[in-house]
Amino acid sequence: MTTDDRAPGATLIRGIDWLLAHDAGADRHVMRRGADLAFRDGVFVDPAALAPADIAQEIDGRDLMVMPGFVDIHAHPGFETMLKGLTEEVASRALGLSSLYEYLFLFDTTHEGMVAATQVALTELMQSGMTTICDLSTPHEGWIDTLAASGLRAYATPMFRDGRWYTKNGHEVLYQWDTAAQADARMAAALAEVDAAIAHPSGRLSGMICPAQIDTCTEGRFRDAQAEARARGLKLQTHAAQSTVEFREIVRRHGCTPIGWLEKMGILGPDTIVGHGIFLDHNPRVDWPETRDLAAMAASGTSLAHCPTVFARRGISLQTLGGYQRAGVEVGIGTDTYPHNFVDEMRTGIYVARVAGQDVRAAEASAMIHAATIGGARALGRDDIGRIRPGARADFFTVDLRHPSMRPVHDPVRSLIFSAGERAIRDVWVDGRQVVRAGRGLAFDLEDALGRLEAAQRASVAQVAKYDWAGRDVDTLMPRAF
Fold first, then answer.
1. What residues have CB less than 8 Å from 13, skipping those under 6 apart?
2. pLDDT along the chain (482 residues), means of 10
3. How far does the chain reach from its first CA to its final CA, in angstroms?
4. What is the DSSP string of 436-467?
């Protein structure tokens, strides 16, 4: 997808049954029936302004719903895809139900494994309607070219840090700190990847500055990261308030909550995205005497990357999606781990919010669609993606209303989220180029990538005992369901 394969004139989709368009005046989505949609040179244009000679291609919009492409503001495609069938049912009860501190570093992989994992994840994501991704990965050879080859709009977000956590017994978390020279070198390598993404000739790539986790980066690292982000006009994202272990560690070090420490350092603000942000001071599991974190995020304009599925697997949830939105926090959606399925992520997010809030109104389809499109775009500082209107980038997908899972058609948005999922998504365009046709990604040979991914998983699984603190193998740690 590196060449410009767009039609030389405009493409017109005529007579769309259901079009989720953007009302610029109200800055919200509106559903239109029997509408036309046109795009040219990667940008939506007003269909009424086109002369017949301007139209190079016409598509029949009957039996289709057209929606703006989803914006995934927090994903780890370079590794997490490999863990399917392994980590769905593991959690350290002594470490707040998190799987991070005991299980995250058990699996190693090769460069070939990372490439295969990325190709599989990006294909799965685009087939579920995602058109923009923030890829929080470890820099590796060919990473930027893989992102470009996907055809997606991508933000290279290489993580760096000053140290790492580990456990020697499964109930205590310790930290191993690098020398300043080692940490500086890691950050420099990440910045070089960001700069390479921005300079890529595809024009669809950008970057983000990512001090990896609030508990693995020093105050100086955060300040340096913020300076580099501002110098480049980029956003900063970090994992924070993602576990009770991390919450207590930051309290131990600094005497305040993770959000409170970000605020003290001056990191909160409209250029910052907090990854996860679950364990704020209002979360009952942290038992904190004050509740001001949510207000601090809202007042500062800090955005939240909400990734419900991976936490729901551990019995953990945001308190709650609707509560954050009503407080004034801009929420975007991320897929984080696997499955890399954006519609699944949205459906899970709605159900989890309703259970956590004990209220069906704690999250609704319209609010989730906003977070998945406009919310994510705002977090990235953009008003030209996540919406369908003249002047915005032509990132969108079509839904087959004749698909059995979509019928009967009364409210196709609800049917897509709650019933059909990605099965009904037919075609996907990014920047006016088609990246999915009839439900199949066009960029990569998916079967070949899956074969390479399976080989990488087998090799990694065989080495688990080497990395486990107690020397346990994968069959002991993660026995199969049957």
1. 36, 37, 38, 58, 59, 60, 61, 64, 66, 398
2. 63 98 95 98 97 96 98 95 94 90 92 96 98 95 96 98 96 97 98 97 97 98 98 98 97 98 98 98 96 98 98 95 95 96 98 94 94 98 98 98 98 98 98 98 98 96 96 96 96
3. 42
4. EETTEESSS-HHHHHHHHHHHHHHHHTTHHHH
How is residue 341 written in tokens?
A: 């399925």
Torsion of CA 213, 214, 220, 221, to 10 degrees: 10
Token pair 């020279």 is found at 181
**Residues 48, 54, 56, 60: what is their CA dihedral angle, to the nearest 10 degrees?**
10
Contact 305, 334 (CB under 8 A): yes
pTM, 2 dp: 0.96
Contact 125, 430 (CB under 8 A): no
Residue 200 backbone class (left: φ over 0; alpha: ψ -120 to 50; beta: rest): beta
Rounded distance, CA 55 to CA 316, Å?
51
Calpha distance 294→114 (Å, rounded): 36
CA–CA dist 247, 56 (Å, integer): 56
In the structure encoding, which two tokens stand for residue 221, read together? 């690292």
The whole-angstrom separation of Cα 92 and Cα 100 is 9
**What whole-number distance in Å separates Cα of residue 197 and Cα of residue 152?**
13
